[in-house]
Amino acid sequence: MAELRRMPATTSTGECVFCAIGSGRAPAAFVHEDDDFVAVADLRPVTTGHLLVLPRTHHADLASLPAGAGARMFTIAQELAAALRRTDLRCEAINLFLADGKAAGQEIPHVHLHVIPRFAGDGFVMRADWRVRSREELTEVAEKVRAAR
User: Fold this and answer.
1) Residues with Cβ < 8 Å from 118, sequence gap 6 or more?
2) Residues with active-site annotation
């Protein structure tokens, strides 16, 4: 089973590795660059063509990323997903994956969005308790989220 893997969160000088990439102080294979975002080929890909979309400025988590920037990050990911499908890389499908916090698997405290080409038998799986929940439980969850907005 392939899984998202550990990589150092900082450079040898203690700088956030994704800030260093975004500023050009660390090497990367860029597939997108604009004033606010970069997208790079992942150093340790789940599958060939695995990309990361990173804001150039440091935002540790999704909550600290301005809403407009979050929308732009997903727009870039959508454009890159379409580009991956046009390449000759093996890509039958795409996963967008954003881990927000350690318990979700975020290893580098700089918000980033994975764009992962997928194909049958690639070995990447997410395991969970996928059982159907009761209508009462779903209603209770919905009420709590609505109240917290």
Assistant:
1) 47, 91, 92, 93, 94, 95, 124
2) 112
Q: Is 97 exposed, middle or buried (0-12, 13-18, 19+ CB in 10 A)?
A: middle
CA 106, chain centre distance (Å):
9
Nearest Cα neighbor of 15 from 111, 113, 110, 112 is: 110
CATH class of 17-148: alpha beta
pLDDT digits (tens, 9 = 90+) for 32-90: 999 999 999 999 999 999 999 999 999 999 999 999 999 999 999 999 999 999 999 99
User: 2: Cβ–Cβ under 8 A, 6 or more apart, which residues?
Assistant: 46, 47, 122, 123, 124
For 93, list phi and psi in degrees, rounded to 5: -160, 175
